[in-house]
Specification:
With 279 residues, the protein is mainly beta. The chain is built from 5 helices and 15 strands.
């Protein structure tokens, strides 16, 4: 009679498994905490295994592919010895060409393609060297912040459908089966260029672009805006910025602090003189 497996036995079994291995088993339970529990074949069945909600399928509804009693073949994507658990991806074996392409990407790698769709949350890119996506119009995706260093109100100000783009790879998203890309990573960072030439105490001229309850924003260079806190507008106390300046005013400001990591520029108007330069 075989002795029951103890914790050390299970740990040894887990150490024999590698991320990227293809394994098979049967779905035994659907629900929390990990999505779908899977009893793997052979000795691997002694360890817990599951398919997370975001790793079931990129092209089919959860209920269509995750059913108790269904046989599945999935790729190992995570091994947790402490929890004695194996994380699986069914999407990986459903889309082997796409999964292999995504796994082969390296951060910083440069890819080119064509803008396939523009949405308010980002841009899909059909990559020249990438396979098609089972759901989306392109396997590449650029989030809104990664489109440009400069401020813009509409995505169409930066790209449009059909436009050729060259982007840097940030990584790949196993939840959606996407290559996460950045357009701005290949562009000079205007804030860094500004910071390299600027210094605390330097006086600048700029245009008031926005009034907020806690101060005003002033554009001091192309793509560079800094905050003048309310108490740095004038020497005397004021309750609202409208008492002092309006959007469009040209003002003198002094750099109080410059934080490159936070991309934050703090300015003072009262230290530079309070008279607007605009007529």
């Amino acid at each position: 009679m075989d002795r029951p497996a103890n914790d050390q036995d299970i740990v040894e079994i887990l150490r024999a498994v590698r991320v990227g291995d293809i394994v098979s088993g049967t779905i035994t339970q659907v629900g929390p905490p990990h999505g779908a529990a899977v009893r793997l074949d052979g000795q691997l069945g002694l360890a817990s295994a599951d398919i997370g909600p975001l790793h079931a399928s990129w092209g089919h509804p959860w209920d269509e592919v995750i059913q108790v009693g269904r046989r599945v073949t999935a790729e190992v994507i995570d091994i947790d010895e402490e929890e004695k658990r194996i994380g699986l991806s069914l999407a990986a074996t459903e889309n082997p060409e796409l999964w292999a392409f995504l796994k082969g990407l390296r951060p910083g790698e440069v890819l080119s393609g064509e803008v396939a769709d523009v949405q308010r949350f980002g841009v899909f890119v059909a990559l020249d060297d990438g396979p098609p996506h089972p759901v989306y119009p392109g396997v590449g995706f650029i989030s809104i912040p990664d489109l440009s260093w400069r401020h813009f109100d509409e995505v169409s100000e930066i790209v449009e459908v059909g436009q050729r783009v060259t982007c840097a790879v940030l990584g790949f998203d196993t939840r959606q089966g996407e290559a996460r890309l950045s357009l701005r990573a290949l562009q000079p960072d205007p804030f860094q260029e500004f910071a390299d030439a600027a210094r605390e105490g330097q006086e600048l001229c700029g245009t008031v672009t926005k009034l907020v309850p806690f101060g005003v924003f002033v554009r001091v260079a192309e793509g560079i805006e800094g905050l003048v806190p309310l108490d740095e507008l004038v020497s005397m106390p004021v309750e609202t910025p409208e008492q002092v300046v309006q959007v469009g005013d040209l003002v003198k400001v002094t750099i109080i602090s410059l934080d490159c990591d936070a991309r934050r520029l703090l300015l003072s108007r009262k230290k530079a003189g309070s008279d607007p330069l605009s007529p």
